[in-house]
User: Which sequence fits this backbone?
């Protein structure tokens, strides 16, 4: 059986590092990052060094040609803390996402799976903390409360534009709003209100569930919605007993069935933190 050809951007980054162990034997991979060294400073010879934001499109097209699915995890981190610096950098991230979409569109790629974040709708956590809202849905209007989330919401809106067909063809698009893709260190929350710890428990996604979410986003054959538009936003959380971010549409569309539950995984910590 022919393997899918999958291009991963930001291949030396954190999210890609969690995904690649599940990707390597399953797909015919092309790995791209702006640098050839990984997060630990080690040379990654399988990774092609390319500047997807600034290099000429004609030079980059070869990376995208013949690819079935692009998994976009690349991200430019702000180097300063002031709001204007964050805005300027996040504008570059929006431009980077658009460049990836356009290169995929121009070179016949069928689908883009883009790494987004719950930060695209982070304001909804305020009524959650106030006990006025107990669930946020992927199709609720995005309400970011920082420039990072604003940029991700912009990625999503751009994604729909490329998916709806108005540019000449429908580029299939899945946006994954990842919430807490790391093990939860309870000690970080000892001096904080309990709901801050509970918030991370509700948003936790284990590595195996993260991998499953991406695998199913890549491999599900048809993702057209009721209007024929191949566009979806899925939240990335595990099968947590405490839930705030709804994954019902991911279960329905791509058959996502997360196996882990933060309340079981961190039971000992929870007993100490919430007693």
Assistant:
């Amino acid at each position: 059986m022919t393997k899918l050809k999958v291009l991963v951007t930001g291949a030396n980054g954190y999210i890609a590092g969690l995904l690649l162990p599940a990707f390597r034997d399953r797909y015919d991979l092309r790995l791209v990052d702006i640098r050839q060294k990984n997060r630990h400073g080690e040379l990654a010879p399988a990774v092609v060094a390319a500047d997807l934001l600034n290099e000429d499109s004609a030079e980059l097209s070869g990376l995208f040609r013949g690819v079935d699915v692009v998994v976009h995890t690349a991200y430019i981190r702000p180097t300063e803390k002031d709001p204007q610096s964050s805005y300027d950098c996040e504008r570059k991230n929006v431009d980077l996402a658009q460049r990836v979409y356009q290169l995929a569109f121009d070179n016949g790629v069928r689908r883009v799976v883009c790494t987004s974040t719950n930060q695209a709708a982070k304001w909804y956590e305020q009524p959650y903390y106030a006990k006025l809202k107990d669930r946020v849905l992927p199709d609720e209007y995005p309400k970011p409360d920082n420039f990072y989330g604003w940029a991700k919401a912009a990625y999503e809106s751009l994604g729909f534009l490329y998916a709806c067909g108005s540019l000449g063809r429908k580029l299939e698009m899945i946006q994954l709003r990842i919430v807490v893709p790391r093990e939860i260190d309870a000690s970080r929350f000892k001096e904080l209100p309990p709901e801050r710890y509970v918030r991370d428990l509700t948003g936790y996604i284990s590595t195996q569930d993260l991998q499953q979410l991406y695998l199913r986003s890549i491999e599900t054959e048809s993702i057209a919605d009721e209007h024929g538009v191949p566009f979806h936003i899925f939240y990335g959380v595990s099968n947590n007993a405490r839930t705030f971010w709804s994954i019902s549409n991911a279960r329905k569309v791509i058959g996502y069935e997360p196996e882990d539950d933060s309340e079981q995984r961190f039971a000992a910590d929870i007993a100490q933190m919430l007693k």
